[in-house]
Amino acid sequence: MSAKPTIYLKDYTPPSFLIDTISLRFELDETATRVKSQLQVRRNPQAAVTRQLQLHGHESVELCEIKLNGAHLAADAYQREAEFLTLLDVPESFELEIETCINPEANTALEGLYLSDGMYCTQCEAEGFRRITFYPDRPDVMSVFTTTLVADASRFPVLLGNGNPVQRGELDDGRHWVTWVDPFPKPAYLFALVAGDLQCLEDQFTTCSGRQVTLQIYAEAKDLEKLDHAMTALKNAMRWDEEVYGREYDLDIYMIVAVDFFNMGAMENKGLNIFNTACVLAHPRTTTDAGFQRVESVVAHEYFHNWSGNRVTCRDWFQLSLKEGFTVFRDQCFSADMHSAVVQRVDEVGILRTAQFAEDAGPMAHPVRPASFIEISNFYTLTVYEKGAAVVRMLHTLLGADVFRKGADLYFERHDGQAVTTDDFVQAMADVSGRDLTQFKRWYSQAGTPRLKVSDHYDAASQRYQLNVQQSCPATPEAQQKLPFHLPLSVGLLRADGSSFVLKDGKTTQLLELTEAEQTFVFDGIDEAPLPSLLRDFSAPVKLVYGYTDEQLAFLLSHDEDGFNRWDAGQQLSLRLVNRLIADYQQGKPLSLPDTFVATWQSVLQQAPQDPAMAALLLTLPSEAYISETAEQIDPLAIHHVRHFMRCALAEQLESSWLELYRQHDSQSGYTASAADMARRSLRNLCLSYLMVLESPAHLALAQQQFETADNMTDQFAALISVAHSGFRDSADELLAEFLSQWQHESLVMNQWLMVQATDPREGGLARVQQLLEHPVYDARNPNKIRSLIGAFCQQNAVNFHAQDGSGYRFLADHILQLDAQNPQIAARLLTPLTRWRRYAADRQALMQAQLQRIMDKGQLSGDVYEVVSKSLCQ
Ligand code: 7MF
Ligand code: ZN
After folding, report:
1. 266 Cα to the center of ligand 1, angstroms
2. How far is ligand 2, taken at its centre, from the CA of residue 871, in Å?
3. pLDDT for 875
4. Which of 131, 308, 353, 557 could make an SS bond with 569 (beta carbons 3.0 to 4.6 A apart)?
5. 514 and 485 Cβ atoms separated by less than 8 Å
6. Which of 272, 380, 381, 392 to mutate to test the pocket of ligand 1 (most atoms within 8 A of CB)?
């Protein structure tokens, strides 16, 4: 049982005291770091009068000394509880001095101050600062921070803090110190420090108003050569925010530090971002194209937070999507501008429609602005991030780009330096547009994925076409009944020749606004029966149902002018076939592919050279995860078997086309990271993956040759995975061994090596993973390793994880129990696949529930794991 109480949004009250300034001095030591903090405190005129000051403080923090206005506090003047330090009687305004002692080496949770590979770093979002010192650790308390770091000069030559360095010096004992001042008031979650033996790549950026900003990216010396891509991404992001949002950077220096031990992707600490090495290091030899793109988008995301998150921050953690949803929307638009907009959209909708929709249908479902939580770190979710971004995107679509920009300007201007709410964000949009967005705000308060049921009617005599749309939303833990949403439904109408009708305002895409549970939209002057193209560019995060025939989907696939819908038509067409084949498989019938389906693929293959990026998307079958999300009940074995069967049949029947395309898309000259080259590689490697399922020695030789001769990780890794997951066992083992010896000193490459093996669908997966847990490249304390091995096995190896004997579930539960004492955030995140037990048949349900119960019965759980397990069991 967890003793942690549930926190409710409705209970929010402003802070009783404000902290105008905080001055921190860290005497860094592996096991006993001394932290002196000096606070200027005053009562909040906006809050109810009280003489009690309650400060947060984690139980691991030792209180050494406390002084008020220079005088030691008597022991009966304060109370120390597990999570708090309460001063019982304080004046209106005063100076508070606190000295604490903490142990970075013992910090395996990686929250607060800890050691990553011998270097000091911090992670304070959301509630890590209370593991450093006693403080009102809530985002609506904003203060000007001054930080002094003191450490051994030879082992920790680099000492970094937020803001600008203002003073430095040396002590007699071989230690040195640096003082940093951040002039912008900020909440404690944006505090950071780093101390280590680091090298940096430095560059300059001239802002739109002509100010010079120094850019520095720090890493261990061996990784210095992997920082160029992040630097380019940073400069592109800075320019983009100036051009698209009119937002300029505000300090003289912007630093990024790469660390190996990190619970998440990255963190936007003011002026001092800290990044997981996996999200900042990139080099063609060691990083795949997907890795390059991740680095670019994470660098941009953290940079964009400087305005959407730091200058304007969250009032409380229920408002998390205020900064995260908006910032994800911003980084999505940035990536779309840097690369192919359709490919970017397909990728982001893929995440939303598989993982977020699944979350919205499970026991942890919550609104974009949750109403309650036990542990806030469990709410850094796809709903807050991805659905939150989709909600901001809908405002952009409803208001148009120009009005949206004016709304963003007003929001930043009105709330600069404040901690605000999602209502404030929407209000700025309402004020500039003159529109009433009250109903729209239901997107923030109602969970669940709405369903749109669309039907139509065409009357040739009156040339009138009508679309009828009904919306509904399933019950979720917080609410049985849902009110209708206000949402943009973008539609086009196709003629028989494939062209789009010109609709309102001379445009071929019309924006319909849904507000009612049922609505009918009328189109006049439609001179032939049209085929509707619905929800273009995925204009709202909903499940759309319309009775297309297979022929109509194939028509959209070849003719729709909306790239996203063209791709989606192909996906829906494949999905239907998948479902028919799953039914056949379950009834023991033989499987076969209809000729029409193969013919459709043949024609996509023929046109592939015209747009390789799009072709690579179109020629990829719906993922097992997406098939699972859309299934009535998930049968992991059937899904895997059917998808594999389809890949084999398509490979066999179109073998010469795959081979020809593979050969055509060979790189002519060396590697480049251009969009065209990435598209070429993705199509070529897709061809290889189809060829390899045929298990022919000739194709194996092709893959082996690609593995040996590749000058970049994208091609080498694609060859590796295609062989490693094939029936050629000996060749698979050989290549895996060769890859290991080639890259054993590259930690991030070894994550990929672990992942290939963890996701291998062939029999005996669990045993292989268990062996790898003992391998020298594995490190049970490093979150990246845990995710690459245990996480990948449980989330991307459905056939093995869902083994009928329940061994996969037991394995996961064993590791959660072990991990919870070490790193509760990672333990809770790893739980996700077990929480989905209701989606499976009774036998698997029982096995999954039994493991959840076993975790629950352990007792002494962290709040993180307790919240997820208890909610999963009671729903
Ligand atoms: C791009 O949001 C998109 C999302 C919190 C940590 C980074 O900037 C962040 C941090 C989590 C989950 C996803 C992301 C982040 C975090 C993230 C990173 C890059 N404020 Br938890
Ligand atoms: Zn973020």
Report:
1. 6
2. 26
3. 58
4. 557
5. yes
6. 380
Report whether pLDDT(1) > 60: no
Mean per-residue pLDDT of the chain: 98
Q: CA 143 to CA 184: how far, in whole Å?
A: 8
Within 15-70, residue ranges assigned H as helices are none
How many angstroms does the Cα of residue 188 sit away from the middle of ligand 2? 16
Residues contacting residue 814 through CB under 8 Å, at least 6 positions apart: none
pLDDT digits (tens, 9 = 90+) for 738-747: 999 999 999 9
Residue 753 phi/psi, 5-degree rounding, is -65, -40
Interacting residues of 603 by C-beta distance below 8 A, sequence separation 6+: 558
Residues with Cβ within 8 Å of residue 378, at least 6 apart in sequence: 364, 828, 864, 867, 868
For range 381-392, the mean pLDDT = 99
Predicted confidence (pLDDT) per residue in 524-547, tens digit = 999 999 999 999 999 999 999 999
459's enclosing H/E stretch is: strand 451-459
Average pLDDT over residues 8-19: 98
Residues 6+ apart with CB under 8 A from 353: 626, 629
Q: In terms of C-beta density within 10 A (0-12 exposed, 13-18 middle, 19 or more buried), how is residue 181 classed?
A: middle
Q: Could you identify the atom of ligand 1 that is nearest to the CA of residue 328?
A: 3
Active site residues: 302
What's CA 474's distance to the chain center, in Å? 25
Hey, what amino acid is at 350? G
How remote is the CA of residue 301 from the centroid of ligand 2, in Å?
Answer: 6
Q: Using an 8 Å Cβ cutoff, are 474 and 451 in contact?
A: yes
Q: What is the pLDDT of residues 600-653, one digit of tens each?
A: 999 999 999 999 999 999 999 999 999 999 999 999 999 999 999 999 999 999
Closest-CA residue, ligand 1 atom 14, reads 265
Q: What is the per-residue pLDDT for 670? A: 85
pLDDT tens string 719-734? 999 999 999 999 999 9
Closest CA to 604 of 641, 561, 650: 650
CA of 710 to the centre of ligand 2 (A): 35
pLDDT category at 403 given cuts 50, 70, 90 is very high
Give the closest residue to 177 by CA, choosing from 214, 142, 147, 220: 147
Q: What is the pLDDT of residue 669?
A: 79
Give the whole-angstrom CA distance, residue 186 versus residue 96. Answer: 19
Q: Which H or E run includes 254?
A: strand 253-259
Ligand nearest to the CA of 296: 1
Structure letter (DSSP) for residue 580: H
CA distance linking residue 418 with residue 12, whole number of Å: 16
pTM for this one? 0.99
Cα(38)–Cα(503) distance, rounded to whole angstroms? 65
Instruction: Using a CB cutoff of 5 Å, list residues around ligand 2, an ion.
Output: 324, 327
Radius of gyration in angstroms for the set of CA atoms belonging to the chain, rounded to a whole number: 28
β-sheet bridge partners, residue 493: 532
**DSSP classification of residue 316:** S
Q: 2 pLDDT band (50/70/90 cuts)?
A: low
Starting from the CA of residue 273, give the closest ligand: 1
CA 863 to CA 432: how far, in whole Å?
42
Pocket of ligand 1, beta carbon within 6 A = 125, 264-268, 298, 301-302, 305, 324, 328, 380, 385
State percent of the chain over pLDDT 70.
100
pLDDT, tens only, 257-306: 999 999 999 999 999 999 999 999 999 999 999 999 999 999 999 999 99
The DSSP secondary-structure symbol of 5 reads P
Considering every ligand atom shown, identify the ligand nearest to the alpha carbon of residue 298 and give its number.
1
Q: Of the candidates 725, 724, 749, 751, which has an alpha carbon nearest to the alpha carbon of residue 736?
A: 724
SS3 sequence of 620-643: CCCCHHHHHHHCCCECHHHHHHHH
Q: Closest Cα to atom 11, ligand 1: which residue?
A: 264
Average pLDDT over residues 29-44: 98
Q: Under a CB-based contact definition with an 8 Å cutoff, are residues 688 and 662 in contact?
A: yes
